[in-house]
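Worked Example 4.2. Consider the chain below.
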Amino acid sequence: MGIRTEYFAAPTDEVAATALHTPGGPSEPDQHTDLPRFDAVAVPSVDPFVMLGGLAGVLSGRPYGEVTAHPRHGALVGSGGDEGPWIVTVSQTLADDLASAGPTRLAEAARAWSDGATPTAPPRNLAAALLPLAALAVRAADEGYRLYCWTSLTD
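Applying the procedure from the previous section yields the following structure tokens:
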């Protein structure tokens, strides 16, 4: 069993929590408009707790324990119960760091992230995951939105 993660932007915790009502995740199209319900990117197997904490530490230069102690690091805003899905927050500090990092900084972060928290993931794969996540962070900042993660268990 694995996890499926989609990171998405929403204006408030309350609006983000409505993504629980989209069984396919926040990028699932609305039945009336056929448009995605949220601006979202799939970032396979990058959990919003440990892996994102490692990334936050790399991008900010702060210790893992400090970044994961942030009150919005993985704070639950919606739960589908024991089987999920779950909606959690991404700290604004990390969202800002992602939005302000260019491709070179993201590639450097992917190398450091690969060496630290995720030794089995090649830096190229992590960099490829960071580019759309950083682009989402830029779009969220432009709208004054926050980042969230929708997580679900997979078979």
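Residues 2-25+36-154 form a domain with the Hypothetical protein yfbM fold fold (CATH 3.40.1760). Helices lie at 13-17, 50-60, 64-68, 92-100, 103-115, 123-143. Compare this with Example 4.1 before moving on.
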